[in-house]
Design a protein that fits this description.
The protein is α/β, with parallel strands linked by helices and about 280 residues long. It is built from 11 helices and 8 strands. It has helices at about 5-15, 35-45, 65-75, 100-105, 125-135, 150-155, 180-185, 185-195, 215-220, 225-240, 250-260, and strands spanning about 25-30, 50-55, 85, 140-145, 165-170, 200, 265-270, 275-279.
């Protein structure tokens, strides 16, 4: 995996100015509202070849409804109003150790005309089922930034929907069974990984981890787009908190993979021939 971050982030953030004439590939984003999910959603919204059809939230870093509130704030700041949000069921009985910090990290800079914390969101299932029903075969790309709970619920109740999926991009650890996103809901992960659908496991590599350097932060701030402003806002906040852990590229790698797949080297995973992972 070779990543020139300054170039890739600039490309992703600049695509807002590009006119698109060809149909975009439908994209579903599933998130657990982690600090890096914020950055990943910003980048995913800028992919020139994809159109986000829905963002759903699974239990994980934050409760699903809190994740949806934050995404509503972010989308409002980005002037995006056509992406439905759905919340999954609560699956965790013990909150992760980093939840308190994640709750302290804001997701928007702009004034909200209404209190989004009073909004009620439909279930992830209600949002996703019509998208699957109306999709042609092998069309949907699903990016999972947290657990696989919502995808599990959909496929468990509608096994015929596996034919609608082009690929699942899942962020996890290099040893997926030790990864947080697997441990959040092991039953869901084991089920989804056994389905006849192409699954790509994205993760950072211990020897090739990528960080937001001061140079990269400066380049992002100079782009002067809505997306770059929101990205800089969070990075500046993390700087003020003297947080060096959450300025690594994690979930963002899923967006970079979709934008520049040729920069990643994949190998077949030993679990099943339909599963590949970054090396």
């Amino acid at each position: 995996m070779i990543i020139k971050t300054s170039i890739l982030v600039s490309i992703l953030l600049f695509t807002v100015t590009v006119l698109h004439t060809q149909p975009k590939n439908p994209l579903i984003v599933d998130s657990d509202a982690g600090t890096d999910d914020y950055r990943a959603i910003i980048l995913l919204s800028q992919l020139r070849s994809y159109e986000i059809k829905a963002i759903t939230f699974s239990d994980g870093t934050l409760f699903p409804n809190k994740g949806a509130y934050r995404a509503q704030q972010l989308l409002s700041c980005l002037n995006i109003s056509n992406i439905p949000l759905g919340v999954g069921r609560k699956t965790m009985y013990n909150k992760p150790a980093w939840r308190y910090f994640a709750e302290s990290v804001p997701w928007s800079t702009c004034y909200q005309k209404k209190d989004v914390t009073t909004l009620e969101f439909p279930s992830a299932y209600e949002i996703l089922k019509p998208l699957f029903e109306s999709s042609a075969n092998k069309m949907l790309t699903i990016v999972c930034l947290g657990s696989l709970s919502n995808l599990y619920d959909m496929l468990k109740n509608n096994p015929q929907f596996t034919s609608k999926i082009k690929q699942v991009i899942w962020y996890n650890s290099i040893d997926y069974k030790k990864g947080t996103n697997y441990l959040f809901d092991t039953k869901a992960a084991d089920f989804v990984l056994q389905q006849p659908i192409p699954i790509i496991l994205i993760h950072s590599l211990p020897t090739k981890s990528v960080r937001y350097t001061q140079e990269l932060k400066q380049q992002i701030s100079q782009l002067n787009t809505l997306q770059s402003k929101q990205l800089s806002f969070q990075l500046d906040y993390l700087d003020k908190q003297k947080d060096s852990v959450h300025v690594q590229f994690w979930d963002e790698l899923c967006a970079i993979f979709l934008a520049n797949r040729h920069l990643f080297t994949l190998k077949e995973n030993h679990i099943a021939p339909n599963i590949q992972q970054v090396i």
